Amino acid sequence: MQPIGFGQATGTIAVYVEKRPPIASFNTMTSILPLQTGEIDWINAQAGNGWRKLFNVYAKLVQTLALPQYQAYRDLSWQQWRDQYLLQRSGQEALLFSAPDLAANQYLYHIIAGRTYGKQLLAGPLAGVEMVWLDEEFAICAEHRLIICPYFDYRQLSNVKISFLSDLVKTLAPGEHTHITSQYSQ
User: Fold this and answer.
1) Mind listing the pLDDT tens digit of every residue in the chain (186 residues)?
2) Is residue 10 part of a domain?
3) How far apart are the first and last CA of the chain?
4) Range of 61's domain?
5) Are 161 and 149 contacting, i.e. CB atoms less than 8 angstroms apart?
């Protein structure tokens, strides 16, 4: 199954969302497309505030992660990084509208944005994947480096929760043996 969305076909982080931006040219996408500089702003203007929030949360997450793959960009603000690299040809990430293909090993980390969408995937294409629910919002599967989290929106995934998500991702790093024992608390 070929991924459908924005960014890279292989890389560090794949975030999965249920719906595409409501823009006609994206309705027929059948593969992954790197965005061009300025295209995030164009999508935001065409598709609305929800997409601006999604891209902002994604950029904040990558900045919070501070993974070695992103060290070259550590001096940029999350806004600069979003505008210059997020989901572009030089990036390491993807925003996908297709279900995760965990067997393909195309991405190091998989994040499903939205508990309801995550549960739909677990009842369908991800049936059999065993998730550990940490609380009502976050679930994790270390075997597949898969996380279900709140949708990428400020109200659902606040800065505190972005930090928690970042910590979860770091526990899944290859060679990391951290066991998650505590639930998320605000």
Assistant:
1) 789 999 999 999 999 999 999 999 999 999 999 999 999 999 999 999 999 999 999 999 999 888 877 777 788 889 998 999 999 998 889 999 999 999 998 999 999 999 999 999 999 999 999 999 999 999 999 999 999 999 999 999 999 999 999 999 999 987 655 555 444 444
2) yes
3) 38
4) 5-171
5) yes
Q: Is the pTM of this model over 0.85?
A: yes
Per the CB < 8 A criterion, the answer to whether 141 and 177 are in contact is no
Number of structural domains the chain divides into: 1
**How many CB atoms neighbour CB 134 within 10 A?**
19
Alpha carbon distance 97, 20 (integer Å) = 6
**Closest by CA position to 113, among listed 78, 156, 82, 83:** 156
**Which sign does the torsion angle of CA 13, 15, 20, 21 carry?**
negative
Q: How many CB atoms lie within 10 A of CB 124?
A: 9
Residue 29 in domain: yes
139-141 β-sheet, strand order: 32-33, 5-7, 93-96, 11-16, 107-113, 146-149, 139-141, 132-133
